[in-house]
UniProtKB/TrEMBL annotation:
Superkingdom of origin organism: Eukaryota
Signal peptide interval: none
Protein name, as recorded: FAD/NAD(P)-binding domain-containing protein
Organism: Serpula lacrymans var. lacrymans (strain S7.3)
Annotated InterPro entries: Auxin_biosynth/cation_transpt, FAD/NAD-bd_sf, Flavin_mOase-like
UniProt KW keywords: FAD, Flavoprotein, Oxidoreductase
Amino acid sequence: MSSQLSLPTLDRLGSTIPDDLDVQHVAQQWFKAFSAGMMARRPNAVGSVLVDDAFWRDMFALTWDMRTFQSSPVIERFLTDQLRTFSLSSFKLRKELVRLERPYPDLAWIQGFFDFETQVGIASGVFRLVPLSNGEWKAHAILTNLEDLKGFPEKIGSLRNFQPNHGKWADQRVREKEFADADPQVVVIGGGQSGLEVAARLKALDVSALVVEKHERIGDNWRKRYEALCLHDPVWYDHMPYLPFPQTWPVYSPALKLADWLESYAHTLELNVWTSSAATSVTPLASGSKHKWRVVVNRHDGQERVLNVNHVVFCMGFSGKIPNMPTYPGMDTFKGQILHSTNHKKALDHIGKKVVVIGACTSAHDICSDYYEHGIDVTMCQRGPTYIMTTKEGMPRLLCMSIYWDGGPPTEIADRINASYPNYLLKLMHVRVTKDIAEADKVLLYGLQKRGFKLTFGVDDSGFLLLAFEKSGGYYLDVGASQLIVDGKIKLKSDSPVARFTPSGLEFENGSTLDADVVIFATGFSDVRSSYREVLDDAIGDKLSPIWGLNAEGEFNSAWREVGAEGIWCMMGNLALCRFHSKHLALQIKAKEEGIFGTRYTDSWLSEHHDVPRARL
């Protein structure tokens, strides 16, 4: 799909933006026709207000899935199928959020928000209208997003518990946390941000959930990593559901500070967490059973607890069970220490040593910088090219980030704007943004290239975004380590692949050598599914769908949905993705528990017509 796409530039549209444009009038007239066609279940009428190569992204509102449809024939087929299933009503344009946007001189659109309802859900939408040569404005992109389930609102705000509690709270919390009266409806495996955020969403929907965390404390998944770890996402992007970071929070969160925040988050929101506990097996119950899954949990005291539940949410992050550590001849003869980055704690462990870090992405840069700052001889061994941008120049420019910046819109609005760009459309925008960032960073990038550092501009020159979405790696968002490489303070070896280990270090394919006392592999992890297979039997493990990466429509594989078996769910992502999609996952579980979940839309016609022409405007 993506190879046939292009941006709706004014040149391509053959249009201009009139000086006397009445933005509100254009948006209202378009919305009147659009909403009438939707409520009348007339796909052709809806199609008539879209450009030929429009995008429509639906998040569970009309498909019970995450889908992106592109081009008029594909969208009209989707609407033909789904408008028969969903009864739509209560369309309302949010006039206060209608605005003309000019991200580039040759790009312009009217962006607007709307609300609507289905027979089971309350939903929101975002549209972007582009001008045509005849003066008409039509939609180039539409988002429809499930916000809530009718009759089952989140118990927040005016729906929170108003009953006073005199002296009973402590005992109640003990019983709740221990599930003394009944098993939970959901077991969440993993107490990092993804596990805590989906547990918070489920609690707000009155679904009982238990978070099982193997570490001694919540936050240890950040607390026990290397000391130099720090988030490179700005704080405005990272807020968590119901409890945003305070206004005094630093823009970039140190890992130890974030770890303490997660622990506080779980305590403040009264989430039910068992620490020092591990789910050792998840097996299906007999077909006639009241529940679907039997989960065995090994508690901190060595006791086993067997729970019968309908849903198990895996919150294992991007890291597979097994670190990805390449093997080389001679490793057994090396007289020094070999570590994976997950086993590295702090630079001070290696005072007076010569350290080589194999890898050239985020962890490698952080670790090398930490060694340099502690006066330790460190060399980065780069195997393949890396995308580099500075956080100073890159973050404010990135399309998905500029709305998450000081003075930007409220988080819930920013989330929907961000989601309203299908990933392959966002990719096209990021090709431009990546060029802008590179121009701003050109002195640093030139210095890196002069030093011998191998650079890439990402998938089809789209920079950071698609590397994160497709590979969850391959980049470094620079906060200082790149200049250390330019200055030679972090040494660099990039002219030849590693051939073998020697007793005293490394030998490379070009015959050069490098002495080392410590070699650290900052080379990522195995397939995410390996963590799932540790507790699922082979029959279920063999059915697991691919996790992460983008499918043909540009949607994430399996994330925030069931992952190959009913009731086995995948929850993952950075803080921002977890904030937004934790509600999607929780709403799906709530709908299943209440018996109102529909059918995920699988369109056999579209799968048989991969080559439906993506018409140009």
